[in-house]
Amino acid sequence: MPPTDREAAYLRVLASPEFQELRHKYRSWVIPATIAGLTFYFVYVFMSTYAVDFMSQKVIGNVNVGLIFGLLQFVATFAVTMAYVRYADRELDPRSSKIRDEMEAEGLA
After folding, report:
1. How far, CA to CA in Å, does 88 sit from each of 13, 23, 83?
2. What's the whole-model pTM score?
3. What SS3 state is found at 94?
4. pLDDT at position 106 over 90
5. Sign of CA dihedral 29, 30, 35, 41
6. Residue 87 CA neighbour count, 13 Å, CB half
7. How far apart are CA 25 and CA 18, in angstroms?
8. Widest distance between CA atoms in the chain
9. Which of 1, 24, 75, 99 has the most Cβ atoms closer than 10 angstroms to its Cβ?
10. Are 102 and 4 in contact (CB under 8 A)?
11. What is the model's pLDDT at position 90?
12. Distance (Å, rounded) from C-alpha 86 to C-alpha 29?
């Protein structure tokens, strides 16, 4: 069954250089950020399991390395989120808006 006119128009958008560039920009930021975040998390889990002596070293009062490392997980999550929002505002949103505007002009959105 051949695609409808609307489906064919969407397929053209998906194949367009502008959309491919948008996908490339998105993936070139998200994939490394995801790998870095997961690596940081798994290092924390690994060290909590296999480097107990190091993680239990007291830093200040009852605050130990493991607690600091655990709290840094939250800091890293918020930092990555803020960095992504800035990247999306600067790089992704203008490109996606242009594509959306072109689609709306063709009556597709």
Report:
1. 20, 12, 9
2. 0.83
3. helix
4. no
5. positive
6. 14
7. 11
8. 71
9. 99
10. no
11. 97
12. 12
Length of the chain: 109
The answer to whether residues 80 and 37 touch, using CB atoms and an 8 Å cutoff, is: yes
pLDDT of 6: 86
Residue 20 structure tokens: 């491919």
Cα 25 from Cα 19, distance rounded (Å) = 10
Q: How many CB atoms lie within 10 A of CB 74?
A: 9
Radius of gyration of the CA atoms of the chain, in A: 22
Cα angle 47, 50, 53 (rounded to 5 degrees) comes to 85
Tokens standing for residue 35: 């790998």
CB 37 within 8 A of CB 77: yes
